[in-house]
Amino acid sequence: MKRREFLGAALAGAILPGCGGGGGGGGPMMGGPPAVASALLTAGQPLRALVPLANTATQAGRFEGALAASPASLGLVEGRATALWLYNGLFPGPVIEAREGDRVRLALANGLPIDTTAHWHGLPVPADQDGNPMDPVRPGATRLYEFDLPAGAAGTYWYHPHAHGTTAEQVARGLAAPFIVRAADDPLVHLPEVTMLVTGLRLDANAQVSASGPMDFAVGRQGEQLLVNGGRLPVHAMRPGATERWRILNATSARYLRLALDGHALTLVGTDGGLLAAPVGPLAEILVAPAQRVEVVVTASTSPNARFTLRAQRHAIDAMGMGTYAAEDLLTVATTNDPPAAPAALPGALRAMPAQAAATARKRLVLTQSGMGMMAAFGINGRLFDMNRVDLVSTAGETEDWDIVNDTLMDHPIHIHGTQFRLVARESRGVATPAPFAAWLDTVDVPSGATATIRVRQDRPGKRMVHCHILEHEDAGMMAVLEVRP
Ligand SMILES: [Cu+2]
Q: How far is the CA of 455 from the centre of ligand 1 (A)?
């Protein structure tokens, strides 16, 4: 089968400025939810602000909080109760907002009927505090996670379960929320800020979260409605001409978000691991792969009383014709009737991003496929996950180049725990495209048939997960254990 090429020349990490449309074929398998929806699933409600997790610390320089993962029931559909699993009963879960330098202590109480963990996605936490699948929190148990947020860690992260084999189910039932780390010297602190957590929801005819089936395990969970902060197609009001900083998180299982805002350009200022060295833009669109985050600066049109749509554009992720996502609207920007705001200045430099050290070791990871179509299964270097096996070994503090070779018929967003890395280049069909700018990533999209070369350094010893962040792929074994030795 001919491999898809259109992403072959793709640019840095998550970023795909001004690229053409995706391939054809296929489409979501499942129908939408029942027709009558409550406010949450009714389009046009105001964008909800996420609820912050209370900091119960009594000392400065600390963040202490309590999370409980428990079954909950929510009236998403009129006259029906949808069974969900939520953090602290919130849909979505509470946003954790801490600062660089903070000592963090978070207690997780497991009120679920199965094992869970809290994985602090993208944060440089010790391996034994990172919610690995080998560290399950049993039903009824409470686990305390403790870690420090070092200088330079400011950025947009998230937390979610990482229990072996049930991560997709736990996220699909509602367990995911942002974790924002702030810097004392944030150069964009003058801009109003909005956090937009994008999640997927797929309900069956009884208004219950539907289990993933064979198609979902093949190409990722299909047919989800996209929600922003738990709402369907919410409205975000902006004063004409106003400039805002948006933190956008892709917490869907498998939905690549090729984001564009009608009539507006986007300026990229940050990725998974925080700010870029300088703003990048204007961009017509930005590709945010599953698990990735972006920080974007948006200046609203000066037209009053106008409406614009933030949309995830059509995007194909496989060459088997099964994983094409149709365009889907995410959110409406509605300008108010106020006189236009004065233009906001954006600094030319955001932060220092010195070059990484030269690599002194090299690894090759091949993303592998067995079976075709609905029978497709994916591994790393031909193997499925075994938490008792070590697949890769690195030395703490050593800089390595990893060639991640995608020898499968679909794209995979590959996530490495415990550190941030940079894309060096992508190669496809003999054409290498260097990353056009430096960006810190913890998840890199590796298109079908392409090789992504990343430069990565792990600073803390212990076992780290390396896996596809299409959650059904992860659960089915597309994951490896990296042992970082002192
Ligand atoms: Cu995958």
A: 21
Q: What DSSP letter does each residue of 311-360 carry, written as one string?
A: EE--EE-BSSSS-EEPPEEEEEEEE-SSPPPPPPP--S-----PPPPPPS
Asked if residue 173 and residue 44 are part of one domain, the reply reads: yes
Judgement on whether residues 293 and 224 belong to the same structural domain of the protein: yes
Distance of CA 266 from the midpoint of ligand 1 (Å): 28
Q: At 379, which CATH number?
A: 2.60.40.420
CA 20 to centroid of ligand 1, rounded, Å: 23
State pTM to two decimals.
0.92
Structural domain boundaries enclosing 461: 361-485
Q: Residue 348 domain-assigned?
A: no
Residue 177 lies in a domain: yes
Return the ∠ at Cα 283 (arms to 282 and 288), rounded to 5°. Answer: 140
The per-residue DSSP string of 97-150 comes to EEETT-EEEEEEEE-SSS-B--EEET----GGGS--TTS-B-TT-EEEEEEE--
Q: Identify whether 378 is part of a domain.
A: yes
CA distance 184 to 187: 9
Q: How far is the CA of 56 from the centre of ligand 1 (A)?
A: 38
Q: In angstroms, what is the span from residue 480 Cα to ligand 1's centroid?
A: 13
Residue with tokens 């390595």: 400
Residue among 118, 330, 149 nearest 224 (CA): 330
Task: Give distance in angstroms: CA of 217 to centre of ligand 1.
Answer: 9
* 190 CA distance to ligand 1 middle (Å): 39
Measured in angstroms, how far is the CA atom of residue 116 from the centroid of ligand 1? 21
Q: Ligand 1 centroid to 446 CA: how many Å?
A: 9
User: What's the 273 CA to ligand 1 centre distance in angstroms?
Assistant: 21
pLDDT mean values, one per 10 residues, the chain (486 residues): 31 29 31 52 94 97 98 89 96 97 98 98 98 98 98 97 97 98 96 98 95 92 94 97 98 97 98 98 97 98 98 86 86 98 94 96 98 92 97 98 97 98 96 97 97 98 98 97 98
- pLDDT attached to residue 279: 98
Instruction: State the distance from the centre of ligand 1 to the C-alpha of 377, rounded, in angstroms.
Output: 9
* Total tally of structural domains belonging to the chain: 3
In this prediction, residue 322 carries a pLDDT of 74
What tokens appear for 466 in the block? 């390396």
